[in-house]
Amino acid sequence: MITTSAPSMLRALPAEHRQRLMRLAREVTFAQGTRLFEEGGRADRFWIVRTGTVELDMRVPGRRPAVIECLHHNELIGWSWLFTPHVWHLGAEATTPVRAYEFDAAAVRSMCRDDPALGQAVSQWVGDVLAHRLRSARSRLLDLYAPYGAGSPG
């Protein structure tokens, strides 16, 4: 399993931008086993984990969903909300009880449009998370389904 984490909002955004975003946050909880979203569903919100663990998974035809990454404290759950067509590319499930900050995607996108510096910072942060998730997905799928794993020559 991939253990390195994507950049957290705390590390990625200047304090002023974090504070503005946090004004839009709503505290939520998810019971263990709750599906936060499904691949292909409408991406209209995102979360920052406060406590607990969320697994990101990917549908694989003819197999069980492949777990791509485990998310923990201060990590972003969801990036599809920022990019059209605003449809989830992965699924997510709480594997422990989770407390998180929830953000309305439309409100954050509007705030980013109104403040280009904030928009650029958020786009860079989410883009970095996206790049990390793509690397994680590639490595994990190779580990699961390639004949010799990700690190072995073919």
From TrEMBL:
Domain of life: Bacteria
GO CC annotations on file: cytosol
SUPFAM superfamilies: cAMP-binding domain-like
One Pfam family recorded for the sequence: cNMP_binding
InterPro entries to which the protein is assigned, alphabetical: cNMP-bd_dom (IPR000595), cNMP-bd_dom_sf (IPR018490), Env_Response_Regulators (IPR050397), RmlC-like_jellyroll (IPR014710)
GO-annotated molecular function: DNA-binding transcription factor activity
The protein, known as: Regulator protein
Native source species: Streptomyces zinciresistens K42
Lineage: Bacteria, Bacillati, Actinomycetota, Actinomycetes, Kitasatosporales
